[in-house]
TrEMBL record:
Domain of life: Bacteria
Membrane topology: Multi-pass membrane protein
Transmembrane segments: 28-49, 89-107, 135-154, 208-228, 234-257
Keyword terms of this UniProt record: ATP synthesis, Cell membrane, CF(0), Hydrogen ion transport, Ion transport, Membrane, Transmembrane, Transmembrane helix, Transport
Signal peptide per UniProt: none
Gene that this polypeptide is encoded by: atpB
UniProt record similarity statement: Belongs to the ATPase A chain family.
Known function: Key component of the proton channel; it plays a direct role in the translocation of protons across the membrane.
Protein name, per record: ATP synthase subunit a
Main location: membrane
Subcellular location, record wording: Cell membrane; Membrane
InterPro entries: ATP_syn_F0_a_bact/chloroplast, ATP_synth_F0_asu, ATP_synth_F0_asu_AS, F0_ATP_A_sf
């Protein structure tokens, strides 16, 4: 059913769930649902970790403190094993990326009709609740990482060192500067593009599968029962997918920033 109460065809049902609540058109279109959930989850992450940090004790910790400490230790070990420079920003950045991306991905665990139906009841026509299925969100995260790569490449190596890296590698000869620049530019630009598209593609595909399974509930009883089994199986498998995608995004960020700190 749409927000107006009209019955949707299977194609319309899929399209309805894949449409963002937006204002504006074209380049200046704002996806309000993606912004709301991504910012809201970011604030929730900061509030939870700050609260745990303020209440942390040296005695027997509570369950939430144990859970947060496990995440922090896991991220800290990942940074120590992968990042070869010295930078106090990397560990907090990696922690933020891992937890924030995981929380955005985890919204895919909410049944696809629950929040859109609640939104429809108050007159909101469209609602996509998984920010990482929006290419605008994944690209904005990737562009933030890309800006840090450029910043630290110039800070560590200097402008001349960064230019030399782009023009004198892999072939250290002045005649090969155009070829080197082309190859290195493609390699550099591929980093944010691969970060954004990998996260978007995996989560978008996962959401689409949940939507297709939800369509089975509108068929006969046997197909609906099969849909329940398929949804449970995909839900269990998708927990691994959303965790792995958050981990990959974090690890690639650490690796790229480690490369930016290497002064050849």
């Amino acid at each position: 059913m749409s927000a107006t109460g009209e019955a949707l065809t299977p194609q319309g049902y899929i399209q309805h769930h894949l449409t963002n609540l937006h204002v504006g058109e074209g380049f200046w279109s704002w996806h309000l649902d993606s912004l709301f959930f991504s910012v809201g989850l970011g604030v929730l992450f900061l509030w939870i970790f700050r609260s745990v940090g303020k209440k942390a004790t040296t005695g027997v910790p509570g369950k939430l403190q144990c859970f947060v400490e496990m995440i922090v230790e896991f991220v800290d070990n990942s940074v120590k094993e992968t990042f070869h420079g010295r930078n106090k920003l990397i560990a907090p950045l990696a922690l933020t990326i891992f937890v924030w991306v995981f929380m955005m991905n985890f919204m895919d665990m909410v049944p696809v009709d629950w929040l859109p139906h609640l939104a429809g009841a108050i007159g909101v026509p469209y609602l996509k609740v998984v920010p990482s299925t929006d290419l605008n969100i994944t690209f904005s995260l990737a562009l933030g990482v890309f800006a840090l790569i450029i910043f630290y490449s110039i800070k560590v190596k200097g402008v001349s060192g960064f230019v030399k890296e782009l023009t004198l590698q892999p072939f250290n000869h002045w005649a090969m500067i155009p070829v080197n620049f082309l190859l290195e530019s493609v390699t550099l630009l591929a980093k944010p593009i691969s970060l954004a598209l990998r996260l978007f593609g995996n989560l978008y595909a996962g959401e689409l599968i949940f939507i297709l399974i939800a369509l089975m509930y509108g068929a006969n009883l046997a197909v609906g029962a099969l849909g329940i089994g398929l949804q449970l199986g995909w839900l269990i498998f998708h927990i691994l997918v959303i965790t792995l995608q958050a981990f990959i995004f974090m690890m690639l960020t650490i690796v790229y920033l480690s490369m930016a700190h290497e002064d050849h």
